[in-house]
Design goal:
There is one protein chain. The chain is of the alpha/beta class. It has eight helices and 16 strands. The protein has a single domain, classed as Metallo-beta-lactamase, Chain A (4-Layer Sandwich). Strands 1, 2, 3, 4, 5, 6, 9 and 10 form an eight-stranded mixed beta sheet that branches. Strands 11-12-13-14 form a four-stranded mixed beta sheet, with no helix packed on it. The relative contact order is 0.17. The C terminus is likely disordered.
Length: about 290
């Protein structure tokens, strides 16, 4: 999927790839998942599975929101120059991502974090003269207090998340740019945090309500179309598997019953997921559901 944009009515949402694809062994991201399930998931999204290598293929993206004269970033991708030796494709990267983002860093009003994993915070900072400094120096960086407290407590004992808390989050604190808020916070008109705990304790989605359409940036409550077919399928990266499954099931029920459009962070061939349910099984509506891509 190339970079994309949609006009929700007064709110324009864009997705800009930071890494595509991110290839992970099936046994790593979905331990114990049946290969036959992954083959069925490939029917929903042929770009989401590499059967030749038994791998799951994801997209790492950063969202840009233009609304009411503001430019807002949601999540921070992987970032450049980070020390990530355990994940070679992330280690000491040099990319053109900031140029492709199409936004001057000083023009960004705010950066919203759905959660604080390494592939969601990296571009919050960049390396300048050997120091990690905020990439968006005028932006308020907003995170659920519960999420921050969880990772801060763990990182006080030993580095967590490939070291991302120390190189991508703490510099924001030191610069006085990080705000901790309730996990139902409404940062701007037409936007509200939506608690989606389980994958991480304080994970939130971002609900966007435009005059034409309402969508939820669903973070990692859904990683992959296989989880439509089997909502109990849990990522190996989830903090609380049982809670993650309960959150996902409730979210899919709501999307199917109420028409809430989901924007999973790692979706590949479709940016927007309109969920259907038949005989208790979830799926995606036809290819025309992405709406007015601009």
């Amino acid at each position: 999927m190339s970079d994309w944009a949609i006009d929700l009515g007064g709110i324009v949402l864009r997705g800009v790839a930071d890494e595509e694809p991110l290839s992970l062994p099936r046994a790593l991201i979905f331990p114990g998942a049946d290969p036959a399930l992954m083959a069925r998931a490939a029917m929903l999204d042929p770009l989401s599975v590499d059967t030749a290598t038994d791998s799951v293929l994801l997209r790492v993206q950063v969202f840009v929101i233009e609304a009411f004269g503001r430019t807002i970033i949601v999540d921070g991708g992987v970032g450049d120059d980070k020390e990530r030796p355990a994940r070679p494709s992330w280690h000491r990267r040099r990319t053109d991502f900031l140029a492709r983002l199409g936004v001057a860093p000083a023009a960004v009003t705010a950066m919203l974090f759905t959660h604080l994993h390494a592939d969601h915070v990296g571009w919050a900072t960049r390396l300048v003269d050997g120091r990690w400094v905020p990439t968006f120096p005028r932006a308020r960086h907003i995170v659920a207090a519960r999420e921050f407290a969880h990772w801060a407590a763990l990182d006080a004992v030993a580095p967590v998340g490939h070291g991302c808390f120390r190189d991508s989050v703490l510099p924001l604190v030191e610069a006085g740019l990080l705000d901790q808020v309730a996990d139902d916070h409404a940062p701007f008109p037409g936007m509200r945090f939506r608690p989606l705990p389980g994958h991480s304790p304080g994970q939130v989605g971002i609900l966007l309500t435009g005059t034409r359409r309402r969508v939820l940036i669903a973070a990692d409550a859904l990683h992959h179309p296989a989880q439509l077919l089997a909502p109990a399928l849990c990522s190996g990266f989830c903090t609380d598997a049982a809670l993650a499954v309960a959150t996902r099931q409730a979210l899919l029920d709501e999307a199917a019953d109420d028409g809430l459009t989901l924007v999973p962070h790692h979706a590949r061939s479709r940016a927007l997921w309109d969920i259907t349910r038949r005989d208790g099984a979830f799926s995606l509506r036809g290819d025309d559901t992405n709406g007015p891509i601009i």
